[in-house]
Design a protein that fits this description.
A: MetI-like fold, globular, B: MetI-like fold, 2 domains, 12 helices, 0% strand
């Protein structure tokens, strides 16, 4: 029994030291002097603007990536078009790339020296250091999640039911809505949760394209950084707790929508 | 059979075209811009820009830290997965859910939480701010779930009869783990540490507050790129970013090859 206890104490101790204690301490620090300083810190104009901007980006990025994710998963699994293997590989890229690489790529594309930059500037469109650039960066980094969750479910589902529906005269859209969508809805929901978490929490890619101007192009994560570096630790802790609260909600949603193991376990039992 | 061949959501051309178009616009065109701008002026010029003492120090530090992350995660990740699958204790489900927290938590918050406990205002009198230990800790924080989440499902599926057979034949715990369990876990473990490696090479948000701005000491590759860009040296930033892109691609291809190998040789 001692060996088992050693593994348990060792692994859980590591988890506590590296993850639980630091996160716990931030919550404690934020509420150290009661809820009032916390509330003051997150309701100041800069913080509330940052929160609003973060939400405005997520509200556009998440639906776009959801629709694209389902389309892309259908393309990868259902349509045996040459080159789809490559698409499958490219979809994984944003997960493995450094956010700095993502941000710099967009900077090089839309900057004054970039391919699209001069033309867009001449026509009065501002991409860098403005909302569109931040949106593009967020879409880039949160792109793979819905695809990754939906692809395995579509594979397992097979095509028999869809083909049966089509044979009975259902239109492609009706087939999708009545057959495919109900089957993949939990996978989509799980993917949406992950996409949202990434969209709300992205820092590096957005930091490069936004310029992080307080009250204008500063998202909540950038507000955390700016506050910490300006020695306004109360503000940094308060905004962090807000983001950590969202992350914990994400975890709860993830547990609720968790695909595969659990449900399959129930079925076989 | 023309009707039966109709697929959900219209013709393949339309939906694949839409998917491909979106993917190109969002991912491929920006990356192409990086590749073109980063390699402008030919290989010799690229190397001249990419390879200076500071960038070399940054790259060496990044690779060294990523190697340490791989080694530590291989042990702690396997131990955590083992505890979650084979052990029984109160609160196990909660611990299982908490493992994913680094995936859900914004990276800048991860860095800040570590500074709260191990920074200048530390309650335990450990100050890891602006040190390589601090950067390592931040990387361990964000990579914690990878190995656990790849090894755990394999451990759940693993047939315990083999271990029982080995035990009845007189094998000790260590022998059973080394000869029976470990070989089965190896593909999953490798793919887990590869994911952690890729993440450690590129991590930015979690390390920026802890690392400070100390070239040759705590400046990892992503921070070097950021600092070059802020200094107006787009070429220098693009050159090292291109190297990072190539490294990430190599790791991704490696993981893909590993998965294909594992599925071909597994049952």
């Amino acid at each position: 029994m001692t060996a088992r206890h050693a593994v348990r104490v060792g692994s859980l101790g590591y988890l506590a030291l590296i993850l639980l204690a630091p996160v716990g301490l931030v919550f404690w620090r934020a509420f150290e002097h009661g809820p009032r300083p916390f509330w003051a810190a997150i309701s100041n104009p800069e913080a509330s603007h940052a929160l609003r901007l973060t939400l405005e980006i997520a509200v556009v990025a998440v639906p776009l990536n959801t629709v694209f994710g389902v389309l892309c998963a259908l393309a990868i699994v259902r349509h045996r078009i040459p080159g789809m293997g490559l698409v499958n590989a490219i979809v994984d890229l944003p997960m493995a790339l450094s956010p700095v690489v993502v941000g710099l790529s967009l900077y090089l594309l839309y900057g004054t020296q970039g391919w699209f930059g001069p033309w867009l500037t001449a026509h009065g469109h501002r991409i860098l250091f403005a909302y569109p650039g931040m949106l593009l960066a967020t879409i880039f980094v949160s792109l793979p999640f819905v695809v990754r969750e939906v692809v395995p479910v579509l594979r397992e589902l097979g095509m028999e039911q869809e083909e049966a529906a089509a044979t009975l005269g259902a239109s492609p859209f009706a087939t999708f809505r009545r057959i495919t969508l109900p089957a993949i809805r939990y996978a989509v929901a799980y993917g949406v949760v992950l996409t949202t978490a990434r969209a709300l929490g992205e820092f590096g890619a957005v930091a490069i394209v936004s310029g992080g101007i307080a009250g204008r192009t500063q998202t909540l994560t950038q507000y955390v950084q700016a506050s910490y570096e300006n020695f306004q630790q109360t503000n940094a802790y308060a905004a962090s707790v807000l983001l950590a609260g969202l992350a914990i909600l994400t975890l709860v949603a993830m547990t609720a929508f968790r695909p595969r193991e659990d449900r399959r376990g129930n079925r076989s039992a | 059979m023309p009707r039966a061949r109709r697929r959900a959501l219209g013709t393949p051309i339309v939906s694949s075209g839409l998917a491909l178009g979106y993917l190109s616009l969002v991912v491929l065109v920006p990356l192409a811009a990086l590749v073109v701008q980063g390699s402008k002026g030919g290989f010799a010029h690229f190397w001249e820009v990419a390879w200076n003492p500071e960038s070399r120090a940054a790259l060496e530090l990044t690779l060294g830290l990523a190697a340490a992350v791989v080694a530590i995660n291989a042990v702690t990740g396997t131990a955590l997965a083992w505890t979650l699958v084979r052990d029984e204790f109160r609160g196990k489900r909660l611990v299982d859910a908490v493992i994913d927290l680094p995936f859900a938590l914004p990276t800048i918050v991860a860095g800040l939480t570590l500074l709260a406990l191990y920074g200048p205002t530390s309650a335990v009198h450990v100050n890891a701010a602006f040190t390589r230990w601090g950067v390592l800790m931040a990387l361990l924080f964000v990579t914690l779930p990878f190995v656990v989440r790849t090894v755990q499902p394999v451990l759940i599926e693993l047939d315990r009869e083999m271990e029982e057979a080995a035990a009845s034949l007189g094998a000790g715990r260590v022998t059973i783990f080394r000869r029976i369990v470990f070989p089965h876990l190896l593909p999953a473990l490798l793919s887990g540490v590869a994911l952690a490696f890729a993440r450690a090479i590129g991590e930015f948000g979690a390390v920026i507050l802890i690392a400070g701005n100390l070239p040759f000491k705590t400046e990892v590759a992503s921070l070097y790129v950021f600092q070059r860009l802020n200094a107006g040296d787009t070429r220098g930033a693009a050159a090292l970013a291109l190297l990072l892109l190539v490294l990430s691609l190599a790791v991704l291809l490696g993981i893909g090859a590993l998965r294909r190998y594992a599925t071909r040789h597994d049952r």
